[in-house]
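User: Here's a structure from my thesis project, written as structure tokens. My advisor, Dr. K., wants to see whether a designed sequence matches the one we expressed. Can you design one independently, without my sequence as a hint?
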């Protein structure tokens, strides 16, 4: 089973995340930010990846540190889980010389509608982190979640998971729907990308 747990504690946040890439989309999310919990639950459910998050942050300041740091730890846990089959973006987690090269579909893309909104995601699990985020919002917040934090989460997740990640709002007026469509598009893209492959999909011979 491709699974991992990572904990990270700073002066601003104390976060533990566990993932099971081969789970069934079971989640246990508690960040103190209701809308963010909803998005992470959707990410787990629709990707089929079990995700547990326990986060305590300085919400008396704002939600920024908690959201960004959750992305960091979730990305690290995802990378470590894949490292069990030979990929890592931080030396020392796994002796990759003793592991076979990872064989996964690697790429995933999805369009996801959410009422009037349509979100798009395309990604490459390549150990070459990058984010292209193309979305604007009509309001500042969704519940207790600042809309601009969606980009911050996706960036910290992508860079710590070693993923090239492109996300685009195709259209939409309701920011709740737009952000949820993007999270679900990420989920279905991950679901496709982590599927086992018969061959190593890299001319380099390694991801």
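Assistant: Designed independently from the structure alone:
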């Amino acid at each position: 089973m491709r699974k991992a747990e990572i904990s990270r504690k700073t002066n601003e946040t104390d976060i533990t995340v566990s993932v099971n890439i081969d789970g069934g989309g079971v989640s246990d999310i508690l960040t103190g930010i209701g809308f963010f919990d909803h998005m992470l639950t959707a990410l787990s459910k629709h990707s089929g990846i079990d995700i547990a998050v326990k986060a305590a942050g300085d919400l008396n300041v704002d939600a920024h540190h908690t959201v960004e740091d959750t992305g960091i730890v979730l990305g690290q846990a995802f990378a470590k889980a894949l490292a069990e089959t030979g990929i890592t973006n931080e030396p020392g987690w796994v002796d990759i010389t003793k592991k076979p090269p990872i064989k996964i579909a690697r790429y995933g893309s999805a369009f996801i509608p959410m009422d009037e909104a349509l979100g798009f995601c395309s990604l490459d699990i390549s150990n070459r982190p990058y984010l292209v985020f193309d979305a604007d919002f009509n309001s500042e917040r969704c519940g207790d979640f600042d809309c601009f934090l969606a980009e911050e989460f996706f960036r910290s997740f992508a860079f710590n998971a070693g993923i090239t990640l492109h996300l685009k709002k195709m259209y939409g007026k309701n920011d709740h729907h737009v952000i949820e469509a993007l999270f679900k598009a990420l989920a279905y893209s991950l679901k496709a990308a982590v599927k086992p492959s018969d061959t190593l999909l890299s001319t380099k011979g390694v991801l």
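When you compare it with your expressed construct, this may help: Residues 112 and 177 are 10 Å apart (CA to CA).
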